[in-house]
Write a structure and sequence with these properties.
The longest helix is centred in the last third of the chain and has 32 residues. Helix 8 runs antiparallel to helix 21 and helix 10 packs antiparallel against helix 12. Helix content is 67%, strand content 1%. The mean pLDDT is 86. A hairpin with an 8-residue loop joins strand 1 and strand 2. A two-stranded antiparallel ribbon has the order 1-2. The protein contains 21 helices and 2 strands.
Length: 479
């Protein structure tokens, strides 16, 4: 039984909570009802951190974005609040004296990310829209802190990497089943593919990019699972999810994801052939030079393709290279050209992180605009992870992003070739190929500020950092 003093506290807190909800409801703010969950969340942060991280991995594909919770601020539930709480919880631990392993901080991937945080902070101060840039930079900080720095230490036990991948993959499978069910009701038409995944994702591009992350992981864990000491149940589960999610990508009608999976398969073959990353880089440089030398002939050949996007998958694939009449392809060229002109206008500091959408309209040329062009900033972004930082953070911001991609690939190749066991090599290949799907997809779209992409991207990068730090062959251990 509660004592009288306890009863006073009980009724006092209960009454204050009811009053707070009444006031918040009066102003159309309904989230005060979730306040009792805050201590529960902090309990899991400090006592059961592993369970909370696995829950976040599972919840990410199934999280629901809310465009406006008040004041024009968007929020994705339940992931974004949990990520913020995790960030605050770990900052509190650091303040209380918890040590962070310096060998993680010495990893070149982490060094580039920390340099990028510093540069984003500087360009936020000089931004043409400081509020938008501050929100973008804060989001980048808590994603990289929680899903790179924290997980790099958390993944010291490789078993945790496998569980993280499985949580993400199983939830992705559920998302694909939901989407295919909706799509089937409309006879798998291309136009309905753009919205069949709602309310979980806003469009087919982000959906395809998100589910593509786990396709290589499921293939690798299925085909090479025996070497990684997986049992037959999990091998069968991996192959089943691989087939299901691949079907999801096919019916997403997202050409960028189709291309990304082809590239991931080619890289897998190169890894199995023991090709070193410097060789791959050499091939890439040669191909880039040839593209520059023969760009006129290439554009002339591409201009002959008049195949527009189509419900027929074969015809839709052929439209990938149509830069004459396909509105989607032409609009990408328009956005890239706008980003280039923005970069030329502010080459050192850029316009500020996260500002492209709101600033690119005046940099469009009427001759390059399409039937889907807009000046309202409501039809997508720059459509490239590589052009965006140049426009928003200047030359250094763009070079830091390119450096991050190249170093992640280099580290992934290195871990695969020098992992201490088959299990480590299989895990490194699984996460590296998953990252390659987005690095390729990022040539044509940009979604890395959204939880659906940020969580698997930074989580997989953290896995590479952790495997490099703790699980190389003894002779290859970094000092």
């Amino acid at each position: 039984m509660l004592s009288r003093l306890d009863l006073k506290w009980f009724y006092g807190i209960g009454g204050a909570f009811i009053l707070l909800n009444v006031i918040c409801f009066a102003f159309d703010f309904y989230f005060a009802s979730f306040l009792p969950l805050v201590p529960v969340v902090f309990y899991f942060i400090f006592v059961h951190t592993d369970k909370l991280i696995y829950f976040l991995a599972f919840a990410t594909p199934l999280s629901i974005p809310l465009k406006d919770i008040g004041g024009g601020i968007g929020l994705t539930l339940p992931t974004e609040p949990l990520i913020v709480f995790l960030f605050l919880g770990f900052m509190f631990k650091l303040i209380q004296g918890k040590q962070f392993e310096l060998k993680i901080l010495r990893n070149p991937i982490v060094i580039i990310v920390l340099l990028n945080i510093i540069w984003l902070t500087i360009t936020t101060v000089t931004s043409v829209q400081p509020l938008i840039s501050t929100k973008y930079t804060l989001s980048y900080v808590w994603y990289t802190f929680v899903f790179l720095l924290v997980l790099a230490h958390f993944f010291r036990n490789p078993k945790r990497i496998r569980i993280f991948i499985w949580c993400l993959s199983i939830a992705t499978g559920i998302l694909v089943i939901y989407t295919l069910k909706n799509h089937a009701a409309e006879s798998f038409t291309r136009l309905y593919a753009y919205t069949a995944m709602r309310p979980f994702l806003p469009d087919h591009g982000m959906y395809a990019a998100a589910i593509s992350f786990v396709i290589p992981a499921m293939f690798v864990m299925g085909v090479f699972g025996v070497k990684g000491k997986s049992n037959w149940f999990w091998i069968g589960m991996a192959l089943g999810l691989f087939a299901l999610i691949t079907l999801g990508v096919i019916f997403s009608f997202t050409r960028a994801s189709w291309l990304s999976l082809v590239v991931a398969f080619i890289v897998m073959v190169l890894l199995l052939m023991r090709v070193q990353f410097k060789t791959v880089m050499g091939i890439g440089v040669v191909l880039s030079v040839l593209l520059l030398l023969f760009q006129g002939l290439i554009m002339m050949e591409l201009s002959r393709n008049k195949q527009d996007s189509d419900d027929d998958i074969e015809d839709h694939l052929q439209s990938f290279s149509n830069v004459s009449t396909d509105p989607s392809n032409l609009e990408r060229l328009n956005r890239w050209s706008s980003a280039y002109r923005m970069f030329l206008d502010k080459p050192v500091l850029g316009f500020g992180p996260g500002t492209y959408t709101y600033e690119y309209a005046p940099y469009q040329l009427s001759s390059e605009m399409t039937i889907i062009s807009t000046n309202a900033g409501d039809q997508g972004n720059v459509h490239s992870e590589y052009f965006r930082p140049f426009a928003e953070s200047g030359v250094l911001g763009g070079l830091l992003f390119i450096a991050l991609v190249l170093v992640v690939l280099s580290e992934g190749f290195y871990v695969f070739h020098n992992g201490e066991s088959n299990e480590i090599r299989i895990l490194s290949m699984a996460v590296l190929l998953g990252l390659i799907t987005y690095f390729v997809h990022g040539l044509l779209n940009n979604y890395s500020e959204f939880d659906k992409i940020a969580v698997p991207m930074w989580g997989f990068i953290a896995a590479i950092v952790s495997l490099k730090t703790y699980h190389l062959k003894k002779a290859e251990k970094p000092k």
